[in-house]
User: Fold ABC transporter ATP-binding protein from Xaviernesmea rhizosphaerae.
Amino acid sequence: MSTLDLIDVTKNYGIVTAIEPLSLSIGDGELVCLLGPSGSGKSTLLRIIGGFETLTAGRVLIDGVDVAFAPPEKRPTAMVFQSHALWQHMTVFENIAFGLKLRGFDKTEIRRKVETGLSLVGLQDYGGRHPAQLSGGQRQRVAIARCLVLEPKILLMDEPFASLDQHLRDRLREEVRQIQKTLGITTVFVTHGQDEAMSVADRIVVMSMGRIEQVGTPGDIYATPATPFVAGFIGDMNMIPVMVSNGHATIGGLRLAASVADGPATLAVRPEDLTLGGLDAAGFGAAQVTRMVNYGSFFKVTALLAGTEWKVQAPKTAAVAQGQSLPLSVGRYQLFRDDRMVFRSDVG
Assistant:
């Protein structure tokens, strides 16, 4: 299996910097998601790894060999694109076999590899069909098989399920994750979907404005976001301006421990770490319930405290009704200042 190391990789378009100098190491057999909004640089970085974009500076090492300026066909990588990129005039078998023919495999070996690839993606009986005869999910499976038969050291996936409906996307990404684990292939997966990254990645690389904001496991990224951007981008998060004075952050009736210097800060607290009607967590203040949405297993509540809206996840059993004024108490929380975390409390 293989490792990938990016060292001081930079990409400029004239005077515009698309990728600030960044370094990242991906271990043997890891599935790493590059996650960020549009324009964050995640797809550009993936294309640099695959050789479809030329970097401005830096190194791209695969198993210690620098391939930064090698063309795509000379790299031990394979890319699954969002658009499938299948040849419509070819059968499924011919699409998958095409790259193997270019590499000089004989017919017997090509047939064996294609049949193995079709089996991996659950399309054993589809070799004779054309792409137009397949569903969107099946076409993407063919695109994945076409990459896998080349036995790349690094598999690259650029938002491969973005064009599929939610149910099919969920199912296919689980299948791909299982294939990736079975083969042990090192994989870099680009997505702007938080749920997708959280569900498949060994580690997530959160990107913004061409730079890396944080690298960590899905659990670490969710529980301990390192910057205000990560806190606001991953999952639901209340980002509330507060004032710190004499070891406490205050807003309205809320008074929370904060062993940082006095001054303004941003309180970050997840909706599930807020309680309406309970006084058993850190601080509390009177909040008015302005909206309730039934999500089946819980209520998403909007409450107004000190002129600020707070999102609260309330259990179905909670005694909460629209228009009520109830104590709002805080469990786990973080404080940010100057674009970094300065305090964290795990109370609750």
In short: The chain has two domains: 4-229, 238-345. The mean pLDDT is 90. Residues 101 and 239 are 55 Å apart (CA to CA). The first strand starts at residue 4 and ends at 13.
